Amino acid sequence: IELKKKQAQEELELKKKKEEEKASAVERFNQLSNELNDVIKKSFAVNGSTIIENIYDDVDIGSLRRLSDIAQHKTPSSVVIFSAKSKDTASIVIAVDDSLIKKGVKADELVKVIMPVINGNGGGKPQIAQAGGKNISKLNDAIEMAKKIVIEKLS
pLDDT for 104-121, tens place per residue? Predict the structure, then answer.
């Protein structure tokens, strides 16, 4: 009976901990989402299109994708390049508006070019693609490379 009580207590504590972690993740995403307008204000224009770029700390790839969706919704004709650094991983999400795909800017092609820079892998579609890699120190180089390619295609 004591063993069952102890197991039940441990399960309850684990469930409570998971709920707290989930609430914390939701709160963190809401905070990032609220800060998105400031990120968009730092974007820059190229021939009527917008490049939105930001590097986050310890943000999971799913959150990067959701943030890129929100940014694209708020900013038509945009390329969104969001990335994150964690302890041992660099993550990148690139999202491209349909109007820019017609101009030759494709998220999956951009990811293919920059993946080797971060010693990573990934893929996706012309509208959205992602990559993850181990070479965190080269994340800025990968982002700059992607921006340079986008600027060339839009100029």
Answer: 999 999 999 999 999 999
Contact, 89 vs 76, CB < 8 A? no
Within 13 Å of residue 61, how many CA atoms lie on the same side as its CB?
A: 14
Rounded to two decimals, the pTM is 0.84
- How many other β-carbons are positioned within 10 Å of the β-carbon of residue 89? 18
Q: Distance between CA 27 and CA 106 in Å, rounded?
A: 32
Task: Please choose, from the candidates 83, 66, 68, 75, the residue with its C-alpha nearest in 3D space to the C-alpha of residue 43.
Answer: 75
Q: Is 60 exposed, middle or buried (0-12, 13-18, 19+ CB in 10 A)?
A: middle
